[in-house]
Amino acid sequence: MVAHFSVIIYTVRKEVLKYKKLAIRTSHTNAWLRQIADADPEKSLYKNHITTGTTIDGKCIRLSTIEKYCGYMVMECFREAFKKKEKYSSCRFDFCGYDGTLWCEPREDGDMAAGFMKEYRNTGNGYYYLLINDNTMIGYDIDRLIFPILCIKV
Fold first, then answer.
1. Residue 148 domain-assigned?
2. Alpha carbons 28 and 44: distance in angstroms, whole number
3. Bridge partners (DSSP) listed for residue 108
């Protein structure tokens, strides 16, 4: 029991430190990145209010990978809007069988937030990532797709 508890503590600390390490390498700031900088390594990402505590916590997608699917022009528009601190949302593009969307928007005090949505086709549900540094999106939240139950008369 003690050994299992030690593994959980180690894993929690490792996840928080991963976010901290990635966030140091950024050229922008926002409230979420400040939460990461102030995070307590003894608490989970969820308890530090960094993620919603899902299975994609710590999962990274590089912007270079996203660019392979959205194309050079979409990525260039995203980067330019981010650099100019302008609001941007790409059209949906195919990303590994999902609908992908890149977005960014200015926040208070010159902050910028940006992210990537990987959603089930033609729905508003899927996997959500936030820009943690200039090259990497990291898992933040999941919106689960709930299929309707079909009732069949016998």
1. no
2. 24
3. none
Of 84, 85, 77, 80, nearest to 101 (Cα)?
77
Cα 45 to chain center, whole Å? 13
Amino acid code (one letter) for 110: G
Domain count along the chain: 1
Q: Are 52 and 46 in contact (CB under 8 A)?
A: yes
Using one digit for the tens of pLDDT, what is the confidence trace for 117-144? Answer: 999 998 889 999 999 999 999 999 998 7
Domain presence at residue 150: no
User: What value, to the nearest 5°, has the Cα angle with vertex 4 and ends 41 and 59?
Assistant: 50
pLDDT digits over 89-108, tens only? 999 999 999 999 999 999 98
User: What is the number of other CB atoms lying within 10 angstroms of the CB of residue 107?
Assistant: 14
- Domain of residue 85: give its range: 2-142
What pTM was computed for the model? 0.84
Is residue 154 included in any domain, yes or no? no
Q: Decide if 135 is inside a domain.
A: yes
Is residue 145 within 8 A of residue 125, CB to CB? The reply is yes
